[in-house]
Known about the structure:
This protein is of the alpha+beta class and 82 residues long. It is built from three helices and six strands.
Amino acid sequence: MKHAGPGTLARIAPLLEELRARPMLHETRPGVFELKSRAFLHFHDDPAGIFADVRLAGEFVRMPVTSRSQQAELLERVDDCL
């Protein structure tokens, strides 16, 4: 599964804006976020959809983020970590 490119990131632009609004997250490059100087969240493009790898409870978990409801679930999980 390859990292999300500019076209994929454009498709999830509203989600990225929501993440950028969280001051504890630092975007090191488009679509790649750190929390406390540690890798926290990035995106992948796959024929099955768009996925986020997010560090939850110390390890990365892959979550689908293609739909708005999936994106809302990711934001809830991110907020729980913050």
